[in-house]
Design brief:
The complex is a heterodimer. Chain A is mainly alpha-helical. Chain A is 70% helix and 4% strand. Classes of the chains: A mainly alpha, B mainly alpha.
């Protein structure tokens, strides 16, 4: 920090003053608790005392069937949650952005604004609104399916073990598709006119122009979106909690790491909350997210050199 | 495939796809708001039609306003959001200025340290944050939420703002120095007004997750006194599962302030995303 500036020049207090508030709050509320949580995962509460137990909590998490079944279930569900986002949210986002960025498209500001609306709503609103729409009691979803002659397809998706997680993932996709759309849209706008004109001179237009010219140029943005999606998904909690409760029903079929952490930490029904096990799960989430970020930084980022204008 | 870039079928196709998706995006919102103004019979009898004089009913709204303490929750959310926003912008801008303006040893290391929080979510530290708040007696206070959200918002704010502060002309700052202005005056009087547009962008980015957060209010401040709108709505909706009028009205009340703000600021937000975020 500012203390490092002492040699050569007089001590510049203002640098320290400018940095101090942000660094203090950030360190005290974010970095230290994060480190504290990692540390807590190595301790256990034995007779009101925190005792160092090494990796014992992790042995419980992976070895004790009471925990490991739930953990692997949550991790599997979370992975599926992520896969759906990558397969549905990002391609739709790219497609919408490609359409929006086509030159002289009218009403594009209106489309942009409207498609981004779900993203600004809270999970509580989104979760409940979709719960109502998909509810067989209200009958909006079956009625709509009836209009296109597919009424036989309707089941209470959120209540069925085999569909609930996919349904919730799609709801989350519906909510967040605006983010990839906006970022890709911005990337497409920043492609210089000359590149497009050169392509047109060579007779590359329309769809092949998108695949051959534009897509390679927006790959770095797709990389950023993928890592943002990854971090967001493995950290998700609110939507599942709002729509299915802390038990992530039916029968834990929508349990993801966030809800699993919440139950371990706070307890639910008969199980008592255990901060140390909660910390162990948070540590696992930390490692997963860190792993994803490292893969992104070292593999994706170094290969996809950003196009410099 | 057509070879012309702007043929008519293409344009129609683009509009068709965009319109379809716009309908998908807006349908649930419109459906909820529309039905919140209807009687119970109207909600179940004809969910897809707008309220008619026959089905128009404000019973849902009177229930919500009578039962839930929504105005109080709303105040809490407002206090938390505005206060966190103020600190994020002030501290973030100050740190961004220090990082972009001065060369000192450890500058880039400090930048990297502060950027860690963009990728690693603060939620993972919840266990220790709760202990910290219990130890300092801040559980069930709005201060706890403000502190957490300030820490949460800072990394991205510093990152975006320092990109913009690098663009402020050096000549201007040096002219200020020659005129004998202190570094603080240069920051508050010269630099801050120039980066105001990017401050607005950062404000919108910071505000939405804070206003919508459920996790920290649930864990750090679940008491009646400190409930935010998001948590209050969640509990209220849980209680009134069978009262559809009340649920739809509560959802509409939660949607409308955000929607109105969004319509006012959408231009700013979208310009912010398309200029700053992908730098």
């Amino acid at each position: 920090m500012a203390a490092d500036t002492r040699p050569k020049r007089p001590f510049r207090w203002h640098v320290g003053v400018f940095l101090a508030p942000a660094v203090l709050v950030y360190t005290a509320i974010m970095i230290l608790p994060l480190a504290g949580t990692l540390q807590l995962s190595l301790f256990r509460n034995i007779e009101q005392h925190q005792v160092f137990v090494g990796l014992e909590n992790f042995r419980t998490l992976f070895g004790d069937p009471n925990w490991s079944v739930n953990f692997w279930n949550a991790l599997r569900n979370n992975t599926w949650f992520f896969i759906i986002h990558m397969l549905v949210q990002n391609p739709i986002g790219v497609m919408l952005a490609a359409l929006l960025s086509s030159p002289r498209l009218r009403f594009s500001a209106f489309y942009r604004t409207a498609i981004f609306v779900p993203t600004i709503l809270s999970f509580v609103i989104v979760g409940f609104a979709w719960k109502l729409i998909l509810s067989p009691l209200w009958g909006v979803a079956p009625h709509l399916l009836d209009l296109v002659g597919l009424k036989s397809l309707f089941t209470p998706w959120l209540g069925k073990e085999e569909y609930a997680l996919t349904a919730l993932s799609l709801i989350s996709v519906w909510q967040f598709v605006g983010i990839p759309m906006m970022l890709i849209y911005a990337a497409l706008l920043s492609i210089p006119e000359e590149v497009i004109e050169a392509a047109e001179c060579d007779g590359i237009t329309g769809m092949s122009q998108f695949w051959k010219i534009k897509l390679p140029l927006i790959l770095p943005s797709i990389g950023i979106i993928s890592i943002l999606t990854f971090v967001g998904n493995f950290n998700a909690f609110d939507l599942i909690y709002t729509a299915q409760g802390a038990l992530a029903g039916p029968n834990y079929s929508t349990d993801i790491l966030g809800t699993f952490l919440y139950r371990a930490f706070f307890g639910f029904q008969l199980q008592v909350g255990d901060p140390n096990m909660g910390a162990a799960i948070a540590t696992m989430m930390f490692l997963i997210i860190l792993g994803g970020v490292c893969v992104y930084l070292f593999l994706v980022q170094t290969r996809l050199r950003r196009y410099q204008f | 495939m057509s070879t012309a870039t702007r043929s008519l079928p293409r344009t129609i196709g683009a509009h068709a796809i965009l319109l379809t998706y716009t309908a998908i995006a807006l349908f649930p919102v419109i459906l909820v708001i529309m039905n919140s103004f209807k009687s119970r019979a109207g909600i179940f009898g004809a969910p897809l039609t707008p309220p008619t004089p026959k089905t128009f009913d404000l019973i849902g709204y009177t229930t919500v306003i009578g039962q839930g303490d929504f105005i109080h929750y709303f105040q809490n959310s407002l206090v938390v959001t505005v206060a966190s926003l103020f600190f994020v912008l002030l501290f973030g801008a100050m740190a961004a200025f220090a990082l972009s303006e001065y060369r000192f040893r450890g500058n880039s290391l400090m930048g990297l340290y502060l950027a860690l929080g963009i990728m690693i979510p603060i939620r993972l530290g919840t266990v220790a944050i709760l202990q910290l708040m219990v130890a300092s007696g801040l559980v069930n206070t709005l201060t706890a939420l403000i502190l957490v959200y300030t820490a949460q918002g800072l990394p991205l704010a510093i990152f975006i703002l320092s990109e913009f502060m690098k663009q402020v002309s050096d000549d201007l700052k040096n002219a200020g120095r020659i005129d004998g202005l202190s570094e603080y005056t240069i920051f508050f009087r010269l630099v801050l007004p120039l980066v105001r547009p990017s401050m607005a962008t950062v404000a919108v980015f910071t505000m939405i997750p804070i206003w919508n957060d459920l996790w920290f209010p649930l864990i750090l401040a679940p008491s009646e006194e400190t409930k935010t709108v998001t948590l209050g709505a969640q509990l209220f909706l849980g209680q009134f599962v069978t009262n559809w009028n009340a649920i739809l009205a509560a959802l509409s009340l939660a949607i409308m302030p955000v929607l109105i703000l969004y319509v006012i600021f959408s231009r700013q937000l979208i310009r912010g995303i398309t200029s700053g975020a992908v730098k």
